Amino acid sequence: MAHPDPVAPRLAALAALLADETRAAFCLALLDGRAWTAGELARHASVAPSTASEHLGKLVAGGLLAEERQGRHRYLRLADERAAHLVEDLAARVVPGAASGRPRTLGAVSTDNALARGRTCYDHLAGRIGIAIADAMTARGLLEQDTGFALTAEGVRWFGSLGIALDARSRRPLVRSCLDWTERRSHLAGLAGAALCRHALEAGWCERIGSGRAVRATADGERALREHLGIEPSILR
Fold it and tell me: For position 102, what pLDDT does the model report?
């Protein structure tokens, strides 16, 4: 007997993809916006390569991940921005470490603190650094947050003044809000958010911490963000 709502089975199937800790761990790791090998993801989730391969196959078949093969290596990434936002939005509904009941190690607390200060959310900046940028842009009239995020004409000129190109031909939204799971507020995503994150990393304003998602503002970045947005360095630390 057919279900009265044809969307229900597909929604249930999508939910089932993330109803497994290993698959959820893979998707959270890939929120750093980079492609990982199957072996790297297996080590990250502490599972055997064969187990990882089985789970990755399900995520690819379900449309959450995309894969590329280069030689003997298999690279996985989130399928697109929508998949990334789905994972991030779901993560925003849980508090890391609180629901498991497991003792919090010093390493786990340090990792959570680093992610809260700054991280990449797929291809844009999140955490306190992401919120600080969105707030500063709004205060300076570069970004409007009244009814969703919208870049102002002054904001477009601001990006140009930094030499950051925004591709008007892109089908991707110029800006969008993305709920931050640590700050419980929205940071800047979309084409502009991705371009700003890429510029921050390439210009040395931010640097990655280890191999994960965490990033921090460098001394040059603190100076640049104060100069261009009036953000006090203490907020970023």
Answer: 53
Dihedral (CA of 196, 64, 108, 177) sign? positive
Instruction: Decide: residue 138, CB within 10 A, 0-12 exposed, 13-18 middle, 19+ buried.
Output: middle
Q: Positive or negative CA dihedral for 210, 233, 231, 127? A: positive
pTM for the full predicted model: 0.78
Question: What would the two tokens of residue 51 be?
Answer: 């187990």
Taking a C-beta distance cutoff of 8 angstroms, is the pair 25, 45 a contact? Answer: yes
pLDDT tens digits along 31-48? 888 899 999 999 999 999
Residue with tokens 């599972």: 47
Give the pLDDT mean for 130-149: 95
pLDDT of residue 99: 44
CA 78 to chain centre: 10
Q: Which CATH architecture has domain 7-79?
A: Orthogonal Bundle (1.10)
Q: Which residue from 180, 41, 80, 171 is spatially nearest to 121, judged by alpha carbons?
A: 180
Rounded distance between C-alpha atoms, residue 204 and residue 219, angstroms = 9
Which residues lie below 8 Å from residue 73, measured CB to CB, with a gap of 6+? 37
Q: Where do the structural domains in the chain lie, given as residue ranges?
A: 7-79, 106-236
Residue whose C-alpha is closest to residue 47's, from 70, 26, 63: 26
For residues 157 and 192, is the Cβ–Cβ distance under 8 A?
Answer: no
What is the Cα Rg of the chain in Å? 19
